[in-house]
């Protein structure tokens, strides 16, 4: 039977989940159900009902480094190797669609989910994601890049509206997804929870139809984030294929009624059902036996892959003694090392939330160093309380160990704890716990060289940076991160990672620090395109580490830059006796940033950052070896989005091409004439502070010029609606609603304090708007019941409870009727 021959209700039923992780197939049309699973850096396969927050048990799987760490490799081929292993494990665990990678732009370092995202730059994010996607899909499993799009904060994540100008959205927040779609052809893509300029992502026609499908050529399935669907009818019209998890049959009835009423075309319903059916057909799992994942050879092979990825992603941030120019790393043969820090013994190698993997193995740095013959462990001290409580005796013990005559060097493992980086919760500070800062300060005073191993999924402030001998940033390095770290520390591996995001000196330096996270409904992207290095380099703000920064045990020089019509060529030389790798980076500066285009003292050309990354290459060289490196131009190199003309355009004029190993160290540059399709014109002076990148002082009037319209944040609502989060009920006039919200807020804080980990379930409820209840309860709650719940939120407790009870019985009867209709009983 052809899909079009199915009844309207049967086709509508295919557009929502059957359970937490399963789609709803159709036996009459031969369309099987398929399984989806979290998997940005490891397969979180839950059996039975499961959950989407990482709370319930899952099958063992390899935990690879997180995306924020893998991006520091700047190596799409390495990401592809990791993706091949991920796809193999997904295949062997009966997973058809692996929900990842995450490639949202890191707009602000405090986003709690940044460890799951690649970069502040769309070129890096898109190219790294493309590698992972190709690897995953080589196994016949669908990858699912997420969260599409403009998703930058966890606070109010299901009830937030990202307000962004069209040009910034296209150039910064969508380009990474575009690269992934065009270069890796993912079969599935996941929409974000938030609204974008007033329309939910899963029902945003401009996003899903105009851009994703019509412009980029995507022909796959669009799935909602779990509970992220708003209106099933609006989603089908706009290009949203599947809402997850199971909303029961409420959405089925809504779609059936809309077709009957003529407000939804059956052609749109057929198109969405066909997209779901194609995934079911394309990901039928055959071949490898399902027990192979637990075989020792597969687990060992994939552990080795995880280690190689961690090794390629480690970033050497500093390598010189504070009083001399001597390198502290690699550790000298025979060095006696005092190991300090709770995370050296009890590892932290992944974040909290839906990406949390039940790792097949665990390692710790203390044990891994102890296995090596090249150094000896002189002792171990805990150094600090894991939860951040000040404990002077722990510091005293660590100082006593470090001061011993049998210690040559102190290795301190510090960083962020489990409470700091999690889905559902943004960080409150860029600092690591003060107890750890106090420890490092005390160790530095011993006079022994202190080497820091830094564990964190995103940037942190480093008040002791000038006082330590070396800093190795390992990020969240996966289950094999400890052995990878030991190999880097001892020189068995030469670090080659470069930062995929800027590290500011302090949080206040961040361009969006004054308005992040948005506590109300509207998250206004006032900074426009000046995100990350685009801001720091344009506004001249000093940073701790520039974008693209990374040291090595080798030294490299760049020379002989030549540009032609299709790309640039240059020479990279390893000047040292040590084989190593560097990341060559190509940046462009548009006509408005070139003195050659100045007219009467005014810059000519559209508003741009001072420079933008447009290509890169990981270059491995033997001792004293040279290589010619070529980076090709592509569709992204010189373009910008012309919002007034609603099209992509290229400015004619003199551009500047620069090459080096980070955004500030660019020893090679050359002017380059571009023959575009529009002439450069003087920049609009009404943009004011945007012209110098000084976005912290942008006025509302200047922002209106950038956005093309006035942007006004709405005031606090007098009443609550279906899309206001439960947390907002803390201000309700109703005693019951106010008590519910405040009790949940207190419970989450208490659990986090007692356990040292966020209470993900409570956080999800607090961030959840009532309308999500009809999407997350497998049919127990329908839209009429949601309206009754909102009455409770607005203080009409008894009226709301009455409607809720009556609605429950009506909904149960309706569900039974719909089930019979679908099953032809």
From TrEMBL:
It comes from the Bacteria. InterPro entries: Cellulose_deg_GH3 (IPR050288), Fn3-like (IPR026891), GH (IPR017853), Glyco_hydro_3_AS (IPR019800), Glyco_hydro_3_C (IPR002772), Glyco_hydro_3_C_sf (IPR036881), Glyco_hydro_3_N (IPR001764), Glyco_hydro_3_N_sf (IPR036962). PANTHER family: BETA-GLUCOSIDASE. The keyword Membrane does not apply. GO terms for biological process: glucan catabolic process. Pfam families: Fn3-like, Glyco_hydro_3, Glyco_hydro_3_C. GO terms for molecular function: beta-glucosidase activity. Residues 582-663 form the Fibronectin type III-like domain. This is Glycosyl hydrolase. Coiled coil: none annotated. PROSITE patterns: GLYCOSYL_HYDROL_F3. Belongs to the glycosyl hydrolase 3 family. Keywords: Carbohydrate metabolism, Glycosidase, Hydrolase.
């Amino acid at each position: 039977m052809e899909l079009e021959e199915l009844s309207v209700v049967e086709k509508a039923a295919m557009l929502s989940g059957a359970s937490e992780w399963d789609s709803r197939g159709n036996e009459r049309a031969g369309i099987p159900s398929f399984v989806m699973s979290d998997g940005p850096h490891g397969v979180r396969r839950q059996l039975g009902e499961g959950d989407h927050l990482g709370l319930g048990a899952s099958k063992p799987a390899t935990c690879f480094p997180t995306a924020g760490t893998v991006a520091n490799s700047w190596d799409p081929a390495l990401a592809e190797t990791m993706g091949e292993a991920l796809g193999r494990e997904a295949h062997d665990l009966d997973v058809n669609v692996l929900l990842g990678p995450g490639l949202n732009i890191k707009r602000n370092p405090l986003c709690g989910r940044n460890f799951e995202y690649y970069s502040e730059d769309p070129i890096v994010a898109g190219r790294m994601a493309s590698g992972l996607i190709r690897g995953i899909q080589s196994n016949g499993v669908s990858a699912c890049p997420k969260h599409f799009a403009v998703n930058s904060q966890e606070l109010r994540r299901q009830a937030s509206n990202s307000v962004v100008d069209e040009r910034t959205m296209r150039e910064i927040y969508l380009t990474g997804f575009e690269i992934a779609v065009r270069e890796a052809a993912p079969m599935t893509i996941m929409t974000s929870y938030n609204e974008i300029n007033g329309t939910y992502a899963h029902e945003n026609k401009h996003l899903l139809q105009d851009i994703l499908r019509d412009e980029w050529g995507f022909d796959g399935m669009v799935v909602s984030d779990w509970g992220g669907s708003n209106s099933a009818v609006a989603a089908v019209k706009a290009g949203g294929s599947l809402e997850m998890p199971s909303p029961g049959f409420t959405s089925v009835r809504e779609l059936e009624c809309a077709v009957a009423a003529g407000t939804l075309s059956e052609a749109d319903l057929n198109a969405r059902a066909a997209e779901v059916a194609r995934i079911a057909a394309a990901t039928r799992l055959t071949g490898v036996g399902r027990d192979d994942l637990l075989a020792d050879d597969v687990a060992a092979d994939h552990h080795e892959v995880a280690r190689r990825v961690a090794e390629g992603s480690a970033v050497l941030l500093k390598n010189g003694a504070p009083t001399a120019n001597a390198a502290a790393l690699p550790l000298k043969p025979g060095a006696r090392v005092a190991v300090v820090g709770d995370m050296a013994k009890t590892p932290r190698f992944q974040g909290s939330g839906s990406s949390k993997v039940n790792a097949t193995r665990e390692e710790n740095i203390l044990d891994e160093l102890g296995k090596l013959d090249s150094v000896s462990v002189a002792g171990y001290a805990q150094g600090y309380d894991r939860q951040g409580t000040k404990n002077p005796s722990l510091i005293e013990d660590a100082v006593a160990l470090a001061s011993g005559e049998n210690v040559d060097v102190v290795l301190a493992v510090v960083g962020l704890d489990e409470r700091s980086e999690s889905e559902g919760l943004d960080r409150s500070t860029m600092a690591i716990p003060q107890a750890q800062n106090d420890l490092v300060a005390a160790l530095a005073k011993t006079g022994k060289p202190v080497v820091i191993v830094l564990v964190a999924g995103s940037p942190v402030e480093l008040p002791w940076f000038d006082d330590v001998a070396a800093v190795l940033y390992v990020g969240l390095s996966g289950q094999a991160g400890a052995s990878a770290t030991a190999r880097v520390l001892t020189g068995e591996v030469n670090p080659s990672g470069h930062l995929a995001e800027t590290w500011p000196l302090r949080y206040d330096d961040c361009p969006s620090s004054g308005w992040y996270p948005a506590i109300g409904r509207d998250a206004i992207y006032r900074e426009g395109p000046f995100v990350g290095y685009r801001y720091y380099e344009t506004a001249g703000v000093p940073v701790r580490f520039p974008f693209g920064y990374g040291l090595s045990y080798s030294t490299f020089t760049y020379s002989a830059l030549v540009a032609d019509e299709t790309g640039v060529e240059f020479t990279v030389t390893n000047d040292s006796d040590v084989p190593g790798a560097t990341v060559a980076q190509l940046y462009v500066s548009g006509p408005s940033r070139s003195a050659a285009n100045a007219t009467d003292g005014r810059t000519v050309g559209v508003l741009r950052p001072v420079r933008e990354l447009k290509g890169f290459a990981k270059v491995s060289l033997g001792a004293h070896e040279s290589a010619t490196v070529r980076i090709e131009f592509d569709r992204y190199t010189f373009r910008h989005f012309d919002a007034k003309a609603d099209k992509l355009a290229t400015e004619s004029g003199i551009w500047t091409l620069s090459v080096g190993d980070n955004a500030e160290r660019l020893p090679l540059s050359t002017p380059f004439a571009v023959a575009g399709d529009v002439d450069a014109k003087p920049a609009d002076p009404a943009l004011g502070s945007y012209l110098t990148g000084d976005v912290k002082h942008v006025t509302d009037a200047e922002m209106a010029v950038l956005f093309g319209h006035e942007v006004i944040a709405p005031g606090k609502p007098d009443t609550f609606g279906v899309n206001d989060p439960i947390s907002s009920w803390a201000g309700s006039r109703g005693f019951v609603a106010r008590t519910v919200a405040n009790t949940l807020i207190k419970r989450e804080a208490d659990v986090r304090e007692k356990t040292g980990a966020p209470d993900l379930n409570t956080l999800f409820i607090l961030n959840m708007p009532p309308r999500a209840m009809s999407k997350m309860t497998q049919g127990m709650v329908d839209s009429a019941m949601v309206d009754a719940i909102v009455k409770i939120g607005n203080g009409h407790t008894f009226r709301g409870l009455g409607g809720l009870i009556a609605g429950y019985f009506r909904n149960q009867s309706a569900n039974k009727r719909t089930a019979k209709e679908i099953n032809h009983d």
